[in-house]
């Protein structure tokens, strides 16, 4: 593996050594995504040595790892991050050891996050859009369990931070945050933590669990998200293009659901089924308006027997969150839900946080207070 700088986190001191950053070679990619995406790449934490404190200093300092997707938003994320660095250094440099890591491909952020947690980072901060946040959240888990610090005497866990700089920042909208990276840095400087729930997704096989923090969805909306990912160069317009492409050949489908380990029930002519840990998806659509990432429950919203013109006539309701009063829209609070198709076609799309996961069947479970978030 290429030689790079390794950061040993813990004890308030960052030690920089010329060695390769250790990565478990057996790390798996996110399950359910097969040959369509690249395999995980090696982690590379690059310390910002200009702000590391002297080893003789006795004052405790927080170890922060900033994971940046420089290609996010057609390269805008990388450019904005460079502009933001001087303010970040001036605001955090006195009290924090800052480690910058630029991702080099899909799953890279997962690897970096796992290694940072194992090395005892105070926080891992996702810099980018919902896609980067999604990978970082998945990095908090490994083999169905939370990743933990190698130092068993550690007094607190690694927190999750967020600086929204990507195409979409739907999770930040739920928290009521402005699209202001300087404001995000001020939150990180304060370091206040609050527990947030995480959703866990499993399939019918024994594949590793997948995790999401925002919204998971099924059928038309998931198919639209799949196509939208191909047009991210157009910014938020990609969601409109993706929806138009998804409508081509779309058919509402009968699905079976099992809520909270109860009895199976049939939902006829389902257009979309959304499982919300948070409120927004698709670039600002308030699809699960009652969802709260600290409630210990999902909000499940089901749209049934929608036609293409229904979306045109009711689109404003979907964006402002008033669609729950519309005919053929239902909502319920759940802690788990299993979904499978009846036709057996194997073509019902599933996604979470805008990432394509494959097709039904799937089971979705809430993990209450699974991660502490800097907010």
UniProtKB/TrEMBL annotation:
One GO term (biological process): phospholipid biosynthetic process
Coiled-coil residues: none
InterPro entries: ATP-NAD_kinase_N (IPR017438), Diacylglycerol/lipid_kinase (IPR005218), Diacylglycerol_kinase_cat_dom (IPR001206), Lipid_Phosphate_FormReg (IPR050187), NAD/diacylglycerol_kinase_sf (IPR016064), YegS/DAGK_C (IPR045540)
Classification via Pfam families: DAGK_cat, YegS_C
Gene3D superfamilies in the record: 2.60.200.40, Probable inorganic polyphosphate/atp-NAD kinase, domain 1 (3.40.50.10330)
GO cellular component annotations of the record: membrane
Sorted UniProt keywords: ATP-binding, Kinase, Nucleotide-binding, Transferase
NCBIfam families per record: YegS/Rv2252/BmrU family lipid kinase (TIGR00147)
Official protein name in the record: DAGKc domain-containing protein
UniProt organism field: Salix purpurea
């Amino acid at each position: 593996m290429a030689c790079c700088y390794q950061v040993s986190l813990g004890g308030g001191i960052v030690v920089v050594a010329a060695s390769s950053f250790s990565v478990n070679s057996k790390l798996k990619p996110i399950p359910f995504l097969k040959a369509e995406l690249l395999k995980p790449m090696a982690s590379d934490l690059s310390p910002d040595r200009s702000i590391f404190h002297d080893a003789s200093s006795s004052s405790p300092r927080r170890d922060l790892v900033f994971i940046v997707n420089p290609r996010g938003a057609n390269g805008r994320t990388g450019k904005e991050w460079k502009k933001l660095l001087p303010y970040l250094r001036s605001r955090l440099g006195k009290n924090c050891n800052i480690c910058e890591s630029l991702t080099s491909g899909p799953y890279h952020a997962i690897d970096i996050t796992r290694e940072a947690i194992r090395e005892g980072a105070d926080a891992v901060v996702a810099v980018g859009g919902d896609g980067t946040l999604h990978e970082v959240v998945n990095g908090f888990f490994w083999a169905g369990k939370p990743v933990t610090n190698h130092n068993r005497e550690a007094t607190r866990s690694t927190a999750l931070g967020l600086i929204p700089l990507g195409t979409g920042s739907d999770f930040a909208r739920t928290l009521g945050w402005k699209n202001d990276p300087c404001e995000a840095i001020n939150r990180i400087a304060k370091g206040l933590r609050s527990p947030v729930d995480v959703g866990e997704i499993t399939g019918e096989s024994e594949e590793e669990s997948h995790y999401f923090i925002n919204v998971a969805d099924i059928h038309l909306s998931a198919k639209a998200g799949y196509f939208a990912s191909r047009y991210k160069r157009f910014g938020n317009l990609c969601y409109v293009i993706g929806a138009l492409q998804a409508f081509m050949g779309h058919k509402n489908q009968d699905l079976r659901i099992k809520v909270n380990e109860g009895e199976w029930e049939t939902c006829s002519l389902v257009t979309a089924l959304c499982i919300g840990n948070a409120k927004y998806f698709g670039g600002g659509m308030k699809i699960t308006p009652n969802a709260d990432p600290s409630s210990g429950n999902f909000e499940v919203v089901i749209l049934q027997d929608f036609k293409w013109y229904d979306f045109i006539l009711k689109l404003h309701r979907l964006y402002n969150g008033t669609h729950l009063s519309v005919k053929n829209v239902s909502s319920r609070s759940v802690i788990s839900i299993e979904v499978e198709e009846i036709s057996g076609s194997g073509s019902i799309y599933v996604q979470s946080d805008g990432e394509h996961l494959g097709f039904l069947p799937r089971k979705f479970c809430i993990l209450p207070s699974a991660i502490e978030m800097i907010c």
